[in-house]
C-alpha cells in the first residue's frame, strides 16, 4: 500500500478479517460507538475489471458475485447485509435522514428514493453505505448525541460543500453541535493524481475564499490544474465549525494504489466500486 507521506502516525489502517482486507480509521474506532470501514478491491469473487471485491450492481458485474462480495465484507467488517441502507449517488448535496423504515434499502429491497449523496441516522444497527472510485468519503460520528453521517463528496459535492450540509443536517435532526463531532475524510484521489480543467477551478474559486486557493490547487504549464479535494473537505468542515483536531484525513490515494483500490482515473472507467460503511452500535 502506497501511503502519502505525512507527519506522525498513519491515519488509516489496514485490517484483515476472515480473509478480507479493509481500511479503518483508528480515530473513529476510538469513539467506541461505531463499526466502520472502507473496502479494498481484495477478498471478493468478482472477475476481470471487477476483480475482486466489486460492490456495484450497475456496472456490468454478475449479481451473484456482487452479493457474495457483500456477504464476505459484512462478515469481515462486522455487519449484516439485511441492515444495509444505500445512497443513490448523483453528485448532489442531498442528504437523507435514514430511519428504521429504510432498513435493507438498496440491498434487500429496491430504494424508493433517488439523488441521495449523504445519509444520516441515529438508529443503531443500520449500516449506511456509500460508493467510490476516486471521490471522497466523509464519515461523521457524534458520540454526544449518538448519531452518524456518511456522505459522498466528489468535486461537485465538494464545491457544494456536502460536508457542511451533513454537519448542519445532523444539527437539525439530532442536536449535533460541530464541536461534538469526530470526522474522517476517507481514501480517495490525491492532489498529485487529480488533474482538472479551468471550468472546475472556476467553481472552486467561487466557493472558496481566495486566501485558501493556493492550498487547494495550482496551475501547470499545460494550462490544467491539480486539485486537492482532501484539503478542500478539511476546510469545509472547519467552515462548518469543527476544530482541526476533530478531523482525520486519509493518507491513502485510490489512484496511487490501483492494485489495492478501484480508481476511475487509473482504470479509465473500467472498474468496480469500493464502499464506505458506517454503523452506530447498540448502546
Ligand atoms: Zn495519488
What topology does this entry show?
Elements: E1 13-17, E2 20-24, H1 26-29, E3 34-39, H2 63-77, E4 84-86, E5 95-97, E6 118-121, E7 127-132, E8 136-142, E9 147-153, H3 155-159, H4 162-174, E10 182-185, E11 195-196, H5 198-207, H6 213-216, E12 217-219, E13 225-227, H7 229-239, E14 247-249, H8 264-267, E15 274-280
Parallel strand pairs: 4-7, 5-6, 10-14
Antiparallel strand pairs: 1-2, 2-3, 3-15, 6-9, 7-15, 8-9, 8-10, 11-13, 12-13
Bound molecules: zinc ion.
Residues 190, 192-193, 253, 255-256 line the site of zinc ion.
Describe this structure in words.
- This protein has 283 residues and is an alpha+beta fold.
- It has one domain (13-189, 246-280): CNF1/YfiH-like putative cysteine hydrolases (4-Layer Sandwich).
- Helices cover 23% and strands 24% of the residues.
- The protein is built from 8 helices and 15 strands.
- It has helices spanning 26-29, 63-77, 155-159, 162-174, 198-207, 213-216, 229-239, 264-267; strands at 13-17, 20-24, 34-39, 84-86, 95-97, 118-121, 127-132, 136-142, 147-153, 182-185, 195-196, 217-219, 225-227, 247-249, 274-280.
- Strands 1-2-3-15-7-4 form a 6-stranded mixed beta sheet. A 6-stranded mixed beta sheet has the order 5-6-9-8-10-14. It has a 3-stranded antiparallel beta sheet with strand order 11-13-12.
- The longest helix has 15 residues, at 63-77.
- It is globular and about 50 Å long.
- It starts with 12 loop residues before the first strand and ends with a strand.
- The mean pLDDT is 97.
- The structure holds zinc ion.
